[in-house]
Amino acid sequence: MRKIPRTMCTQHPDYASMPQWVSGDFIKGDDEVYEAYVNYSVYGCQETMWDFEGKDVDIYVVRKLLESYGGFFINNVLGEDIFLTYRLPNPNVEVSDRKVYAEALETIPMAYDLARVFYGRPVRAIFEVIFPLTSSHMDLILTLKYYEKVVAGKCSVELYNGVKVADLIGEVEPKSIEVIPLVEDMESLLRVDSIIEGYVKVARPSYMRVFIARSDPAMNYGLVPAVLLAKIALSRAHEAGGRLGVEVYPIIGVGPTPFRGNFNPRTVDRTLNEYRGVYTFTVQSAFRYDYGVDSVKAAIDSVNNAKPTEPVIMSKGEEEAALALIRQYIERYQAEVEGLARAINYMAQLLPPRRTRRLHVGLFGYGRGFRGVTLPRAITFVGALYSMGIPPELLGLSTLLKLNEEQWRVLENHYVNLWRDLGEAAQYVCVECIEQLPNIKVNELRVSREVTSMVLEDIKALDQLGVKTPLQGFEHRKHSLLVRLFLESLSNGYINEAKGYLVEMAKARRAIG
After folding, report:
1. Which residues sit opposite 208 in a β-bridge?
2. CA separation for the pair 129, 111 (Å, rounded)
3. Nearest Cα to 238, choosing from 309, 144, 324?
4. SS3 content of the chain, % helix, strand, coil (to 5)
5. Residue 227 contacts by C-beta under 8 Å, 6 or more apart in sequence?
6. How far, in Å, are 209, 425, 513 from residue 420 at the CA level?
7. Same domain, 343 and 394
């Protein structure tokens, strides 16, 4: 059995503080190659996601890693001890990147050839790919078969007069790959078991990794629905694996803020306990760059060495109660987001980009949102709301006042850190700033009184729910002051000063979003 990594470093542009080894304002090009090396050698991360989705990518990453840092990689075998895993673009959604999808798969045999020469033996340097926005087992099967029949299978194609492709470029290895579904929307999360079953029946794997998203579901449905959907998906994934006789090793895509998963060096134990049954946790950029190196290394080491937790299997009755709660919550949450959307999109343009990414607007932009609403990436969505004094964790919260006894029981049993997450987020509330939004001089940032009233009702619900909010520390008081200064600067046309306050706010909360 191969080693399954416990930690996966990612390229999410969510960090507020620039790493010391970056000379400019972005991580790009060879910086990302060096970053992958640092992920392994400094932080001790066991896996790095190499992201082809929504940005330009260095396809020669394996060559550069082995040539530049050979001393490290000769003792830490790529594909056996540590891992580089591609996230592909979804060709059904990102139509302009369909050929990038094909290009990424074509580089896998090149990585194999480089590793074979470097190690002096056959080594599958890259053998796994992540398929984003998976909605059906066919997404996985078609990717698997494309690789087997087109990438590896072309060797037997005759070019001319008996000369085959293999005679020209040599044999193509590996002959097959493993495909990891990244499940991101509600409908797909709820049918993750059928996705697993459909793939297993065709591919016949001995185990399967399944990637459960947390950020996009939170942006689309709200904090509480995102957590409960993840719990339902994890339960159904493990149940399907047991039924099919296949080990399932879930990955959870957790970010640094409560809205995106609350996984940072200060909350490792809490997050491991929250997502029981998860095997691999994403260590996103803010986790690594907005905290001290020693604390980051210690946190990653603790995850790598933690004993895997047993999954929690939800009963049918618990699932039904959770889904009823989710649907109630979504109705209010989405109404509020619709009213805030224009301001969010305006704010997103002002937040500092941290990687050179092409436009990507999440599930809303793929026609799977509601009422024609288009939103930015989840990271800037969160950053925009925090920067207006509105912690996104609190949107829709007054829905909880209407829950019945069974729904309360399911919520408290399956969202273990709910009250702590809400208490942490509430420290970033700026009521004065929210009340100011309808009067602000910048039209794009102006929000109707109807919407701000709904947001203030959610904040008031904290007291009604008995949530004990810790007293604001220095960084939280500083954050509230910066929000006020930001809005004042923007109202008076001081755009550069306003952008500076946005960066300072991000540093105060240790993440863009």
Report:
1. 248
2. 13
3. 309
4. 55, 10, 35
5. 214, 274, 414, 415, 418
6. 30, 9, 18
7. yes
Say if residue 295 is in the same domain as residue 325: no
**Contact at 8 Å (CB) between 415 and 224?**
yes
Rounded to 10 degrees, what is the CA torsion of 412, 414, 419, 425?
-150
Q: Which of 305, 339, 365 is the last residue of a domain?
A: 305
Axis crossing angle, helix 449-464 with helix 316-350, rounded to the nearest 10:
130
Residues forming beta bridges with residue 55, ordered by sequence position: 357
Whether 289 maps to a domain, the answer reads: yes
CB 426 within 8 A of CB 467: yes
Q: Are 289 and 392 part of one and the same domain? A: no
Specify whether 300 is located in the same domain as 444: no
- The closest alpha carbon to 398, from 336, 447, 339, belongs to 336
- The total of other beta-carbon atoms located within 10 Å of residue 219's CB is 28
Residue 436 placed within a domain? yes
In the listed set 272, 305, 338, which residue is the last one of a domain according to the structure? Answer: 305
Give the Cβ contact number of residue 456 at 10 Å.
18
Q: Judge if 290 and 343 occupy the same domain.
A: no
Residues 373 and 298 in one domain: no
Residue 269 lies in a domain: no
- Is 348 found in the same domain as 300? no
CATH code of 64's domain: 3.20.20
Does residue 284 sit in the same domain as residue 410?
no
Cα–Cα distance, 223 to 39 (Å, whole number): 29
Residue 351 lies in a domain: yes
What is the full per-residue pLDDT of the chain (513 aa) written as tens digits?
899 999 999 999 999 999 989 887 788 889 999 999 999 999 999 999 999 987 778 999 999 999 999 999 999 999 999 999 999 999 999 888 899 999 999 999 999 999 999 999 999 999 999 999 999 999 999 999 999 999 999 999 999 999 999 999 999 999 999 999 999 999 999 999 999 999 999 999 999 999 999 999 999 999 999 999 999 999 999 999 999 999 999 999 999 999 999 999 999 999 999 999 999 999 999 999 999 999 999 999 999 999 999 999 999 999 999 999 999 999 999 999 999 999 999 999 999 987 765 544 444 434 344 567 889 999 999 999 999 999 999 999 999 999 999 999 999 999 999 999 999 999 999 999 999 999 998 999 999 999 999 999 999 999 999 887 777 889 899 999 999 999 999 999 999 999 999 999 999 999 999
Task: Provide the pairing of β-strand 158-160 with 163-164.
Answer: antiparallel
What residue numbers bound the domain in which 175 lies? 7-206+280-305
What's the structural domain count of the chain?
Answer: 2
